[in-house]
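Recall that a protein's primary structure is simply its ordered list of amino acids. Everything else, from secondary elements to tertiary packing, is in principle encoded there. The following example makes that idea concrete.
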Amino acid sequence: MLASVVFFSAFIALNNAALVNQVIDIKSTRDIGANYTLVINADTEMVRLIMTGDEGIWMAVIFGAEDMFNASSYVYSQQTDNDWVLAERWFTDEGDAGTLIAEISTDDYTVSTTDGRTTVVFDRTWAGSTSTEYEFASTQTEFEYGFARGLDAALANHGGDGRSHEVATLQHDDDDAGSQYSVFWCPIAILVYIAFS
């Protein structure tokens, strides 16, 4: 005679919590005279960078690192032909203008000046469009950044008080801002042979 006995076994799966829409005020304890804001849109997987500083100075933000040598920077500055350009650059020395990776299309950013303050608004995808751009991930818990402003329009050394850095804790769709667990019950059938004489 053949009989079957069914047991239930539980296992726990780790679910990574996802980023939610949020605004990061890019700042530190030191005021450098320019303001930066990062808006993360989890629904569209887009980020918006807003840079505001005195008219006529260059501004820059680093995504994913605290200094300009470990990641590329977004820099808004005046070029030799007097045009102002937002570009992705990689720096290897504090005294140079860095290596130009790509100029940002004017379709992707706007510039406005009011009461002597210039604001640059730049939109990009989480993944970015170049191999060196920082890539956002839905499960990341922290965001490192650095930021700087110049003393003039042309890109040059920012001076001792012209830069700072910080690490922001990102918000997720669970209370832990990290991970959550789910318990699944799985039936396991065990066959038992019973012999009768």
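DSSP finds no helices and 13 strands in the chain. The chain has a mean pLDDT of 76.
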